[in-house]
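Workshop exercise sheet. Pairs work together: one partner reads the sequence aloud, the other fills in the structure field after running the prediction. Swap roles for the next sheet.
Pair: D.N. / O.F.
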Amino acid sequence: MSDGAESSTICCVTYSIRAASVDDADALGVVSVRAWQAAYRKVMPDEYLDNLEAIDRAEYWRRHLTAAPSDRHVRVIVIDGDVVGFAAFGPAGVGGDDVGELNAINLDPAVWGRGLGRALLSQVTSELGALGYLEAMLWVVPQNDRARALYESGGWIADGTDRHQEVFGVTVPEMRYRRSLDE
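Structure field:
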């Protein structure tokens, strides 16, 4: 997809997916905090989740969108002019030059269950293939059943690799999913 937005309708909701801009940083901060607080309750410490600040995440995204290398991409999904989700992707950095990575996908919990995560995942998977990657990978917290079901519905498969990773100040267990892109 080009950086221009194309509108689509799913479950009676018209949405568009487009490249993120620095102007989206505040919305990305809000979405990421809401998504984490809903998805990781009982997985990460409550105190950590309760103290997440959208302004801190917005600053992260502002820096990222200003200084990211050209091979790093962020897409936002928009409804009625409001950013309700995003995905970040690019090269995996491991496994060779033909492996891409979905680094993050977050949706505001208010829009969960409408097919928007599936639409965003499909778009990013297609873009990874269009960028020339033959395979893609992602990491997910094992207890995040909702995300795992989404990935599996998109043809991603857990490959048995686990790790512990520091993510925004907290160490979490993660498992890796992979997907062929040459289908």
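Discussion prompt: The chain has one domain: 6-180. What would you look at next?
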